[in-house]
TrEMBL record:
InterPro entries: DctP_fam (IPR018389), TRAP_DctP_sf (IPR038404). GO terms for cellular component: periplasmic space. NCBIfam families: TRAP_S1. This is C4-dicarboxylate ABC transporter substrate-binding protein. It holds the Pfam family DctP.
Length: 331
């Protein structure tokens, strides 16, 4: 004999189960342009751990390091399309949708890191990021200045670069960024655009002579093996940007979103500590291996870029110089 429960009983039982069952957990895919063994990578791994902890397992993140899912530009397209949920990279990648964003990395313009941080917190930069969100559906997570990348920038080269003159004609790898390409061309380099993951081979095969890099990433990429000369150049300050697909971010519960943002803040502090501590240790190890380190007079770089900005003043974003000037001192 077939026995069937009344539909009302089934519906009531299903509702009761759903009321006490926890919400299904989510798994996000996150692409990054560095290796997990780098100081920056360790900070990102801490972020993943904290997200799982703070969300009580409701949100987990799977990492795809060192451009496994494609170049940073290709990954940005995947992020906008929702094929992945997060990307960690320099925020200048967002210039693909709002070209003005590339000016957050304007070379030889900001007086110090504090000046740059104040500029990043300006209404102008906030407007640029809002336009990215509106046009591409990509949001910037948290305070974009807190996860330090660097902590300073260097030229890693196959031959010594000890002066402005040594830069002239140097085949310099550059990321795909119109401002960076134009600026370093004006400074005298022979700029070659190349994906980050191809740089080691490019240096090894002499396709390029040099690459600009945060000092903390040099050893983990092993660039010094094929380019044993490192020169501090301090072109700009930068941070590790955490970019999130806006739709999936807004789809989180308030509790999970809070967990995500707290995890970012705590991991950014940890990552910055890792980068700062590791940089000094890395320099000492590389010196012991015979890598040569140089300082150089940056005055010609600053003077050349001042002329560059003056000559291109009509092409600069509206309000850019006003925002730079307004943020020179703390209010």
């Amino acid at each position: 004999m077939n026995f069937q429960l009344p539909k009302a009983v089934i519906a009531g039982a299903f509702s009761a189960v759903m009321a006490v069952s926890p919400a299904a957990s989510e798994t996000w895919r996150m692409a990054l342009d560095v290796g997990l063994e780098s100081p920056e990578g360790r900070g990102i791994q801490r972020f993943v751990e904290l997200v799982d902890d703070y969300s009580d397992g409701d949100l987990t993140i799977k990492l795809f390091p060192y451009e496994q899912l494609g170049s940073s530009d290709a990954v940005g397209e995947q992020l906008a399309a929702g094929l992945i949920q997060m990307q960690s990279a320099g925020l200048v990648r967002l210039a693909k949708w709002v070209p003005e964003v590339e000016y957050i990395n304007a070379p030889y313009l900001f007086e110090d890191r504090e000046h740059w941080v104040r500029f990043m917190h300006s209404d102008l930069v906030g407007e640029w990021f809002q336009r990215v969100e509106d046009q591409a559906g990509i949001s910037v997570l948290g305070d974009p200045t807190t996860f330090l990348r660097g902590p300073y920038r260097v030229i890693v080269s196959s031959k010594p670069v000890e002066s402005f003159e040594d830069l002239q004609g140097l085949r310099l790898r550059m990321h795909s960024d119109d401002l960076a390409v134009a600026a370093w061309t004006a400074l005298g380099a022979d700029v070659r655009v190349m994906p980050w993951s191809d740089v080691y081979q490019g240096l090894q095969r002499s396709t390029v002579d040099a690459v600009n890099s945060p000092i903390a990433l040099v050893e983990s990429t092993r660039f010094q093996e094929v380019a044993p000369h490192v020169t501090e150049q301090d072109e700009y300050w930068q941070s590790v940007g955490f970019m999130v697909n806006t739709r999936v971010l807004e789809g989180l519960s308030p509790e999970t979103r809070d967990a995500l943002e707290r995890a970012y803040a705590d991991a950014a502090a940890y990552g910055t500590e890792q980068v700062e501590a590791a940089a000094a240790e890395s320099v000492e190890r590389m010196k012991a291996e015979g890598v040569n380190f140089y300082d150089m007079d940056l005055t010609p770089f600053v003077e050349t870029m001042a002329t560059f900005y003056d000559a291109h003043s009509g092409d600069l974003p509206d309000g850019f110089f006003a925002a730079v000037d307004a943020t020179r001192t703390a209010q």
